[in-house]
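testing teh design pipeline on a random one, pls ignore if ur not involved
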């Protein structure tokens, strides 16, 4: 069946009004996309982050009254609101989005593969991971740099912590690369659920232990500490993360903008770590240190 797509741009503050209007007019789905490549930083607990400039797309069945849709949106947002209405060719839209995801290599051993595709190298370490509600499929530079570090280092037999585990991508990679145990921490219940499900899909659930920060036992010590979060929380947590790391253990930090690298590195030096020069990808930094 062919479809009609209605697309417009507005502020994030209008999201509820626009979504409600499109759905009341008969849209079968409403999609929100960033219009200006704006990064979203960590929101307060319970808050839903949204971009300042948003592109809204409503998908309607072919017999929808487009004049009515156009008039209702202009009455809601103003008569000068730019609205684009176009017919779409008939496709299997439930599967159409899948074509944008491909297997991605990280280093020489590790691949991240969508579950509906055959891994290109059956002899590699292939992690099956699908896009989902919890972020983290390896495409962002911060995640990619952490995966590359794991690929380049021997974690076999080691205890690893993934602080801020999200989808569990780093934790599962560590487990597939031979870690004996991986401690997964996140304050988002959806992230913890995604981590458990992805671990089961990759048959490493027996290696993972999942906690909220409040549940983390105080006596847990690890050989490798991974934290791909943000600079502010990394600085605040420096003592805690270093405290859970064994002497001689590795600390791998990401989610850091280039101009934040010195502040984060200094916090971990103060916490008793010897820090290496940063590794950079685009605007983002990965830091590595050894717990003294």
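output:
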């Amino acid at each position: 069946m062919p479809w009609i797509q209605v697309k417009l741009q507005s502020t994030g503050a209008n999201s509820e009004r626009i979504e409600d209007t499109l759905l009341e007019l008969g849209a079968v789905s409403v999609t929100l996309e960033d219009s200006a490549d704006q990064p979203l930083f960590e929101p307060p607990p319970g808050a839903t982050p949204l971009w300042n400039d948003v592109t809204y797309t409503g998908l309607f069945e072919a017999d929808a009254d487009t004049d009515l849709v156009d008039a209702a949106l202009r009455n809601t947002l103003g008569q000068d609101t730019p609205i684009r209405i176009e017919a779409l060719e008939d496709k299997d839209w439930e599967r159409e989005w899948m074509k944008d995801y491909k297997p991605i290599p990280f280093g020489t051993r590790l691949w991240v593969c969508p579950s509906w595709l055959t891994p290109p190298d059956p002899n590699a370490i292939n992690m099956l991971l699908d896009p989902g509600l919890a972020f983290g499929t390896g495409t962002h530079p911060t995640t990619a740099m952490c995966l590359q570090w794991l690929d380049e280092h021997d974690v076999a037999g080691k205890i690893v912590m993934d602080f801020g585990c999200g989808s569990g991508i780093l934790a599962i990679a560590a487990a597939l690369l031979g870690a004996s145990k991986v401690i997964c921490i996140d304050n988002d219940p959806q992230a913890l659920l995604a981590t458990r499900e992805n671990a089961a899909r990759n048959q490493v659930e027996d290696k993972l232990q999942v906690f909220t920060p409040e549940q983390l036992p105080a006596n847990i010590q690890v050989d490798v500490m991974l934290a791909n979060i943000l600079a502010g929380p990394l600085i605040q947590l420096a003592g805690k993360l270093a405290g859970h790391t064994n002497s001689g253990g590795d600390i791998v930090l990401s989610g850091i903008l280039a101009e934040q690298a010195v502040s984060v590195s200094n916090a971990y030096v103060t916490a008793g770590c010897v820090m290496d020069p940063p590794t950079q990808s685009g605007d983002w930094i990965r830091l590595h240190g050894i717990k003294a």
